Amino acid sequence: MTVTVKKVETRKDLRRFAEFPNHLYKDNPYFVPQIISMDMDTFDPAKNRAYEVCEGSYWLAYDENGKIVGRVAGIINHRYNEKVGQKICRFGWIDFIESQEVADALLAEVEKYGREHGMEEVEGPVGFLEFDVSGVLVEGFDQLPTAYGKYNAPYYEPMILKDGYEKSVDFVEFLIKVPEDISRYERFADLVAERYELREAKIRNKRELNQYVPGVFKVMNACYSKLHGFSELSPAQCEDLKNQFFGNLRLDYVSIILDKNDEVVAFGICLPSLSKALQKAKGHLFPFGWAHILHALRHNDTIDALLIAISDEYKSKGVNAMISTKLGRGFIKNGIRYIESTRELEDNKSMQNIWGRQETRLHKRARVYRKSL
């Protein structure tokens, strides 16, 4: 096969870039399409505040007949590189047909981009920020991804490895069964709250939730700072995340823990699973995509653990029991049977301890690769 890789230069090509996975996996029952307009906003420097600290380019691969057969993004997160003292070029949003020639051509383009910008390593798949999709699926091909994960065919990993890449880190996902009885968490949560002078924030509406948003992001920046690939979020980037997620939140699925000075020290935020709704939407909010999403937000038996963090001062002190109690009450009240942990680093034991006493199953794994230039 003759493969030609071209840089995305026009809005039309950018839409083709965003739509390509929907065509590649249109008949796959485990593929979850992303909303095309939202993906295009992610790729637009005028709309994505990640470009405050990042730069990037996008490429499409074509066969000899002019058909699109692959895509990839090349990204440099300058803030993260400064933080870790390394020169890393990221590749992300990589998809391709089952062809080693296509995989070779796409990765070669990213490596060229990295060298031209003075980078010394390539790592991916990784997005602009920690909250973009990371990793190639290597386990769980018969499982439905969360809306924040990504499906890919099994042939991705062997083809990436053949190009000289090796494992950097793994992300794992757990399916957790919601317990019928949370009384043990309630008792322990009461003891923890009394011992450390902590309390659950009483939030009656989203307006009251807004007062805690700065504290939530402060804790998140501090807690996630040690995680692989994370760079501190700016106020503008925090605002983007707030706009992306907070409008769809239900207060039953939000826990915010305050200390005696009413400062946020921990939080847990979950969102009903949107995977099946996104499959029905087929990449579009209109005319009926919104209806499927709104229905999923109100009627669901599965919840996605979106964001959870506990300040270092209170880790290993049982604060997770307070979060589990508040969220657990909401789950039971609304008929939630399962929790999807979403992707977390395989060595993130503090996160996994939150689910430790519940019935869990590791059912998906995604891998990030690295190569020296």
Explain this structure.
By secondary structure, the protein is an alpha+beta fold. Helix content is 35%, strand content 26%. The protein has 2 domains: 4-171, Gcn5-related N-acetyltransferase (GNAT) (Aminopeptidase, 3-Layer(aba) Sandwich); 176-364, Gcn5-related N-acetyltransferase (GNAT) (Aminopeptidase, 3-Layer(aba) Sandwich), CATH 3.40.630. Strands 1, 2, 3, 4, 5, 6, 7, 8, 9, 10, 11, 12, 13 and 14 form a 14-stranded mixed beta sheet that branches. β2 (54-62) and β3 form a beta hairpin. It is globular and about 65 Å long. The model has no long low-confidence stretch (mean pLDDT 92).
Strand coverage percent: 25-35%
**Rg, Å, rounded:** 21 Å
- Poorly predicted runs of 5 or more residues: none
- Biggest β-sheet: count, sense, barrel? 14 strands, mixed
CATH architecture of the largest domain: 3-Layer(aba) Sandwich
N-to-C span: 26 Å
In short:
It contains 13 helices and 14 strands. The protein is an alpha+beta fold and 373 residues long.
From the structure above, extract its key features.
14-stranded mixed sheet; 13 helices; alpha+beta; Aminopeptidase; globular; 2 domains
Write the layout of secondary structure elements.
Layout: E1 4-7, H1 11-24, H2 36-42, E2 54-62, E3 68-77, H3 78-84, E4 88-96, H4 100-116, E5 121-124, E6 136-139, H5 156-162, E7 166-177, H6 183-196, E8 199-200, H7 206-210, H8 213-224, H9 235-245, E9 254-258, E10 264-272, H10 275-281, H11 289-298, E11 302-310, H12 319-333, E12 338-340, E13 344-345, H13 349-352, E14 359-372
Parallel strand pairs: 4-5, 11-12
Antiparallel strand pairs: 1-2, 2-3, 3-4, 5-14, 6-14, 7-12, 7-13, 7-14, 8-9, 9-10, 10-11
Helix pairs in contact: 1-2, 6-12, 10-11
